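Encode chain A's predicted structure.
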Amino acid sequence: MDFNRQVIEEFRANGGRVGGMFENGRLLLLTTTGARSGLRRTTPLGYLPDEGGRVLVIASAGGAPEDPAWFRNLVANPRVTVESGAFTYEADAVVLAGAERDAAFARAVGSDPGWGEYEAKSGRTLPVVALVPLAAGPPGGPATPSAMLIAVHDAFRRELRLIRGEVAASGAAGVGAQLRINCLTLCEGLGNHHMGEDQQMFPLVARRHPELAPVLARLGGEHEAIKGLLAELRRALDGGDPATLLAEVERLTAALEAHLDREEEQLVPVLDAIGL
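Encoded structure for chain A:
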């Protein structure tokens, strides 16, 4: 409990970044309602991106023979709270079954054999749980538009770093199923983010600050360039060659980091005054 408390405090103090055994990994905080006590309990957990905006967590309990308390809680009360760093949202927990569970677990083992070792050690079939965000409204996050923009950008930066490491480590094993989903999730998220900026943020900034029209035109052009790089990344995924995929990830990283830095430099000073 003391260890979990330290991780939770570090996670919340640093926008989802932690050191130690969780450094350079995907981590979230899951808050469940006690099956018997009714009290809210928060647990740090590794997770896997999944399609459709949901994420997966595995009830490994470090290979213990019994399901962890957080799993028993969400079975009794499926409505949970997820903290992903700067963002907090409500979700419904869905325990996967049958072929869907087996396919998800196989992806997990393909990306990290430790999951299979935990299952063998536990003597049980490890439950896989999908956390499905509720459709009502955006996730809670920083209070100001500028802080929200930076938080979103930092989430993309962090995900790119993780994917670069995963692709580099894949080597002769090729592009695994989970790595493919990680990349496609990144592509979808970036595409949606830039579409929102093009259709909502940029027009509002242009109305309030017409002098920024050249800046906004350049940023919009960079969105189109990044869209092209995302298409190349998808093609590299279809090819299945890790070296080609890594080259495309590096190209995307260089272009995106430069774009995010430029966007923050130009727009952060004006966003809060506009009141997006």
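Strands lie at 27-33, 40-46, 48-49, 55-58, 79-83, 88-95, 128-133.
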